[in-house]
């Protein structure tokens, strides 16, 4: 595993006291350089969303998981690009910078996401191609 052992984890034993919002924000600043504004806004109206987000992160990216932190960041970035999530794109751009991921790897990730979306358009156009072939 190429895990970055200094990165904080977000899953804790069931009997552990949950971190405060400020502790979570400090962890996010350490990992990504800032707290996404959508997370800050969510906490103001429903603090539970933050803790659910942390639980989901721990499920998706458990400590000691199979992927390195760099790979996780690049996969997350590609997914955010494909989904069009500006908040996640910004967060992963910040995280890639904090992790010193080489520009070539980030750009290749962008190109892969672009290619996946182009392939999706061709796949989705299959009925059009079939209709045109019948002309």
Number of structural domains: 2
The tally of strands reads 0
Oligomer: single chain
Going by CATH, what is the homologous superfamily of the largest domain?
AhpD-like
Largest sheet: none
Radius of gyration: 18 Å
Shape: elongated
Overall helicity: 55-70%
CATH topology (fold) name of the largest domain: AhpD-like
- Uncertain runs with pLDDT below 50, 5 residues or more? 1-10
Kindly summarize this structure in a few lines.
With 135 residues, the chain is mainly alpha-helical.
What do these coordinates show?
The chain starts with 20 loop residues before the first helix and ends with a helix. With 135 residues, it is an all-alpha fold. It folds into 2 domains: 10-66, no CATH class; 73-135, AhpD-like (Up-down Bundle), CATH 1.20.1290.10. The protein has helices at 21-32, 37-45, 47-60, 69-83, 86-98, 103-124, 126-133. The protein contains 7 helices and no strands. Mean pLDDT is 90; it is low at 1-10.
């Amino acid at each position: 595993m190429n895990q970055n052992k200094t990165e904080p984890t977000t899953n804790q034993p069931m009997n552990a006291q949950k971190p405060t919002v400020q502790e979570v924000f400090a962890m996010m600043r350490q990992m990504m350089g800032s707290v996404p504004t959508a997370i800050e806004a969510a906490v103001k109206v429903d603090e539970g969303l933050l803790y659910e987000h942390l639980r989901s992160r721990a499920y998706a990216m458990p400590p000691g998981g199979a992927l390195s932190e760099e790979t996780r960041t690049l996969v997350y970035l590609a997914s955010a690009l494909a989904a069009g999530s500006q908040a996640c794109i910004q967060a992963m751009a910040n995280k890639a910078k904090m992790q010193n991921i080489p520009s070539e790897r980030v750009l290749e990730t962008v190109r892969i996401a672009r290619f996946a979306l182009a392939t999706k358009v061709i796949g989705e156009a299959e009925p059009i191609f079939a209709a045109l072939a019948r002309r």
